[in-house]
Amino acid sequence: MNSLKQMFGGNTRQFGMIFALIALILFFQWQTGGNTLTPTNVINLFNGNAYILILAIGMVLVIIAGHIDLSVGSVAAFSGVVVAIVIRDWGIPWYLGIVVGLLLGALIGAWQGFWVAYVGIPAFIVTLAGMLLFRGANQYVGESNTIPVPQAFQYIGAGYLPEVGPVTGYNNLTVLLGLLAVAFFVYQEFRSRRKAAQLGSQLPPLWVSVAKLVLLSAAILYVTSLFATGRPGTSFPIPGLILAVLVIIFAFVSNKTVLGRHVYAVGGNRHAAELSGVQSKRVNFMVMMNMSILASLAGMIFVGRSTASGPFDGVGWELDAIAAVFIGGAAVTGGVGTVIGSVIGGLVMAVLNNGLQLMGIGADMTQIIKGLVLLIAVAFDVYNKSQGKPSITGLLTRNFGSRSKPDPTPYGSSQTEQPVGTKEKISHDV
Amino acid sequence: MNNHTILEMRSITKEFPGVKALADVSIEVQAGEIHAICGENGAGKSTLMKVLSGLYPYGDYSGQIFFQGKEVQFKDIRSSEAAGIVIIHQELALIPELSIAENIFLGNEPTRFGVIDWDYVNRTTLELMARVGLSEDPVTKVKDIGVGKQQLVEIAKALNKSVKLLILDEPTAALNESDSQHLLDLMAGLRSKGISCIMISHKLNEIEQIADSITIIRDGRSIETLHVANDGVDEDRIIRGMVGRSLESRFPDHTPTIGETFFEVRNWTVGHPNIPDRLVCKNSNFHVRRGEIVGFAGLMGAGRTELARSVFGRSYGTFKSGQILIDGREVTLRTVPQAINAGLAYVTEDRKSLGLNLLDDIKSTTVSANLRKITHGLVVDDDEEYRVAEEYRTSLRTKTPSVNEGVSKLSGGNQQKVVLAKWMFTDPELLILDEPTRGIDVGAKYEIYGIIQKLADQGKGVIVISSELPELLGLSDRIYTIFEGSITGEVAREDASQEALMKLMTASRKSA
């Protein structure tokens, strides 16, 4: 009975998100007559949205710290055009171009971070100014022209894992990545079970772990097979690879490092954090700077994909990134949010975009639907904030990079999701 | 109740979850008198006034209120104001960016055909200002006049609502000498026009000067009502009423082992963070010895917290001058991290807004002030975090099913234990505990006292700031008193009594 309750009980953020994502995919698969889950479409989906997801990774940290960044689209465009010009006019190789772009991002981030953290101007204002400033700078520097980038540079935006090794009918590197991912999750799950046992805390039942791993492995292997069997010359895209690496790094940083802890602390209660010795100004500076570096990277990937930098690159990206973060469970008031959640939130938006497109629905209706989805996702969350019971997906996603702590419900509520163990304990006591 | 009684509150009882804030409190106010309510911080004065003004609506408390002979059941502030009861809070409820006239008529704007009748507003404002002795242009913005004048605007606003009973909560706390005197004169003037006043104040000299009768509240009970004319009341008599409770064995037995002085603050002067020229700490000197528990006594707003926080890495106010010596060597603590590294810990009085991230869980809160200690390279060691949190949970006996629990789920006492654990984990030499038992039930208080004594026995210095004199007397080895930003006395445990402390904390002119 208890297990059944755990399977189906209640609604957590992750429950909503993952099920929405799966339901959306299945819905579009049905509506488009199987055109959604094809290798070509899935590859396109990743290629076309990687830069938004990269922005979402930076944006979630900004939002956890209690700020917002409206300038990311303009910063991306500015970095893109500068890198394109530098490569063309200075004749430097593509990889130095990337270094220049990242350094420029750091510089822009330092500029915005300075105003936010040390002068104390709200990030909304600073980045609204930045949005205008760097859009203008993009068009000034590029003279509102399209500036092409060389073939080699396009690899970061439109490249694929190369074919190596024996001919298997699959792209070998993609298959290898998929298998590594499965191995990682299996290892991770059993490690966390062993640890929990050592510390004497209550374990979720074994079948939950096994079910979780079976479902997850099946999903990963299925997606892997899609990527590995694309048109000749295509496989797992490089932007997807960059995204995956960034997700791993930032999920790790936000959960496991002092800096990550400090971001949550500053967003949760800045005064308490300061009185505990957290240098909140430095934290704010770092998240703003990091955001601009990631925006630069996203801009370069986009330029690589579209083979040229243009005056209207990145228009509206900030809103897509912010929407992804809030669909992903972050709170406007700060202190709450996860990197993984934001990426899932971004995928929900991406799948929605893609599916509606495949169905031949116009941009007008697509925007209306996206707007409603954002509103409903957050409203659903507010509505459920008092019912933080663990669901099957809550359990399934409990240890994947999400902070292994009770996930506080967003929107300033102090309600927290109870870990399974304590829930059981309480119900026994009662 | 006789014909002259304007207000009677009968057997008022108000409970908060786990705390009885008011138990069977009765008070009777005569028409045309100034009635003072006295009591220590937390005695229940403000709660009683919130009941009266309808902030705690009828049904939220038990007991009866009679106003002008009829039983009244206020359901919000509007209904009490309609009856003629107006409360002026310590923190003024004026809107700084609006003019005096706009503030006076806020929520009560006279209109003609839906348009505000500014002629009437300005004319009436001038009349009202004349009544309270304020000469300003009605269109002056409230932020541009001083606190004393703002107080008068509040009273003018009350008069405009045809007030019959005016409640003033600490009206002179923020005022200087001459503004205070003006306000007291104004109250006497209102009395002669038949308006009754209830006045809550810590300034006993003012009460002695102006009040007709005094009701004393202690621990949520009304103790006695003194009539100034008949009973020959003076400050000592009031103090006796306010503190007259016995010290039961509310403290664990403890024999201090006191070492040499290791922490010393000299000539510490700090300015207000926003108001230039206003000092929150004036030339303060104090020291702490190893193994010693030092109490800081002072009424709310006296500058205790400001002193403590300015010492703790200048986290409050603007530093003017002064020295900190640790083990005889002068140190400069400009930031909180420097203060923590120097071995200081500060546990705030305001647990919810300054002490805890309520979104966080117990284990990460416990390690949050000393993350470095459990970090290898860049990575926080989760296992170590859990182990440390468990250790403190056991040793401080924090009641929680698990250290994975969110801190927002804990009771006040257990939250305080988590905060203490957080600071104990930084292994400090000097702990400054600001109101360590505020909002905590009696049983948990006892445990926290035990923790404090244990810390002292480990050779650490402990400063306890408290509004509860019995707590300071029961816990401290030595007590400093603070009044208006200055240290007004230093009393050894043997010589300390509540009366003596209260004198040093209130009547600076007498003791000086």
* CATH class designation of chain A: Mainly Alpha
Please give the radius of gyration of chain B in angstroms. 25 Å
Helix share bin of chain A = over 70%
Report the largest inter-chain contact.
Answer: A-B, 37 and 41 residues
Q: Main sheet of chain A? A: 2 strands, antiparallel
State the end-to-end distance of chain B: 43 Å
Order of the strands making up the biggest sheet of chain B:
6-9-10-3-11-12
Overall shape of chain B: globular
Give the beta-strand count of chain B: 24
Average per-residue pLDDT of chain B, rounded, comes to: 87
Question: How would you explain this protein's 3D organization?
Answer:
The complex is a heterodimer of chains A (430) and B (512). With 430 residues, chain A is mainly α. Chain A is built from 18 helices and two strands. A two-stranded antiparallel sheet of chain A has the order 1-2. The model of chain A is unreliable at 1-11 and 386-430 (pLDDT under 50). With 512 residues, chain B is of the alpha/beta class. In chain B, the strands form six sheets. A six-stranded mixed sheet of chain B has the order 6-9-10-3-11-12, with helices on both faces. Chain B starts with a strand and ends with a helix. Chain A binds chain B through residues 195, 198-199, 201, 256-259, 261, 264-265, 268-269, 271-279, 335-336, 404-406, 408, 414-416, 418-419, 421-422, 425-426, and chain B through 312, 315, 335-337, 339-340, 346, 348, 353-361, 363-364, 368-369, 371-372, 375, 378-380, 382-383, 386-387, 390, 401-402, 404-406, 408-409, 422.
In short:
The complex is a heterodimer of chains A (430) and B (512). Chain A is mostly helical. Chain A contains 18 helices and 2 strands.
Architecture blueprint of SSEs:
The complex is a heterodimer of chains A (430) and B (512).
Chain A: H1 2-8, H2 13-31, H3 39-64, H4 72-90, H5 94-119, H6 123-141, E1 147-148, H7 151-158, H8 172-198, H9 206-228, H10 238-256, H11 258-268, H12 270-275, H13 280-306, E2 308-309, H14 317-327, H15 339-358, H16 363-383, H17 392-396, H18 420-429
Antiparallel strand pairs in A: 1-2
Helix pairs in contact in A: 2-15, 3-9, 3-10, 3-13, 3-14, 3-15, 4-5, 4-6, 4-13, 5-13, 7-13, 8-9, 10-11, 11-13, 14-15
Chain B: E1 5-16, E2 19-30, E3 34-38, H1 45-52, E4 62-67, E5 70-72, H2 77-83, E6 85-88, H3 100-104, E7 111-112, E8 115-116, H4 118-131, H5 147-160, E9 165-169, H6 177-192, E10 196-200, H7 204-210, E11 213-218, E12 221-227, H8 228-231, H9 235-243, E13 261-271, E14 279-289, E15 293-297, H10 304-311, E16 318-326, E17 329-331, H11 336-341, E18 344-347, H12 351-355, H13 362-366, E19 375-376, E20 379-380, H14 382-396, H15 412-424, E21 430-434, H16 442-457, E22 461-466, H17 469-475, E23 478-483, E24 486-492, H18 498-506, H19 508-511
Parallel strand pairs in B: 3-10, 3-11, 6-9, 9-10, 15-22, 15-23, 18-21, 21-22
Antiparallel strand pairs in B: 1-2, 1-4, 4-5, 7-8, 11-12, 13-14, 13-16, 16-17, 19-20, 23-24
Helix pairs in contact in B: 4-5, 9-18
